[in-house]
Structure formats: structure tokens, C-alpha cells
């Protein structure tokens, strides 16, 4: 198995959304309004760009016809994040040393917790596993270029 650093480094790059499962139920569990969930369903093209600078600060940019969002973080350090729906959350992202996963924990002002894991599978596709409460969702992205 590759080292954790190289497994995490595989997440760098540009990714196009391929498909997903149960995302609307996940958003509903997060407390996202029906109107915003319908708008999210209408998005036909979503691009994600993940990069890291020389100081170990990571950036994730999500671009779509609905909204563009960006957040920056250093692994293991809590930061303030503004979600695509405009909600402010406290987030922390860590890297799992055993399996090369990027683990994102967030909590909103109402105490609702979200757990997201990202990793690159053996087909070089980014897999994103999301959970909120008892609801689980999955999204898949393909590398561009």
C-alpha cells in the first residue's frame, strides 16, 4: 500500500461530478430547505479543484451553475466554513494515517453534525461518503485531464 502522504496527495487535482446516491435525503437531514435542495438537484455540472500549497494549507474549490464555494484549511486545525447554503459551521479536516482518507467533521450552530470522507479508489475516482444523523449518502467524481 502507498504511504498515507501519497494517498492523500492523490486527491489533488480537478474532478468532475459523475453520480451520487441519497444526496437529497442527506441535505434534508442537514436541515437544508426544500427550495435549495431542488436547486441542488438541477445542477448538471459540478467541478471540484483540490490543491495544497508549500506550507501544507489545502484548498477545495467547488464550482457549479448553482454556486461556487471555496474553503482553505490545515489538517488538524479547526476553521470556520461557509457551506454552499450560506450556513456557518465549525469544521476540522484530518488525514487518516491507516487508509489515506480525508475526514471532514463539521457542526452547525444548531449542533447538527456532518461527517464526510474522501478518498481515491483503485480506478482513480474520488469517492465521497457523507453522513448526517442516521442518513448516509455517496458521491463520485472522475479526474479531469
From TrEMBL:
<comment type="similarity">
    <text>Belongs to the calycin superfamily. Fatty-acid binding protein (FABP) family.</text>
</comment>
<dbReference type="InterPro" id="IPR000463">
    <property type="entry name" value="Fatty_acid-bd"/>
</dbReference>
<protein>
    <recommendedName>
        <fullName>Lipocalin/cytosolic fatty-acid binding domain-containing protein</fullName>
    </recommendedName>
</protein>
<feature type="domain" description="Lipocalin/cytosolic fatty-acid binding">
    <location>
        <begin position="13"/>
        <end position="143"/>
    </location>
</feature>
<keyword id="KW-0446">Lipid-binding</keyword>
<dbReference type="Pfam" id="PF00061">
    <property type="entry name" value="Lipocalin"/>
</dbReference>
<dbReference type="InterPro" id="IPR000566">
    <property type="entry name" value="Lipocln_cytosolic_FA-bd_dom"/>
</dbReference>
<dbReference type="GO" id="GO:0008289">
    <property type="term" value="F:lipid binding"/>
</dbReference>
<dbReference type="InterPro" id="IPR012674">
    <property type="entry name" value="Calycin"/>
</dbReference>
<dbReference type="InterPro" id="IPR031259">
    <property type="entry name" value="ILBP"/>
</dbReference>
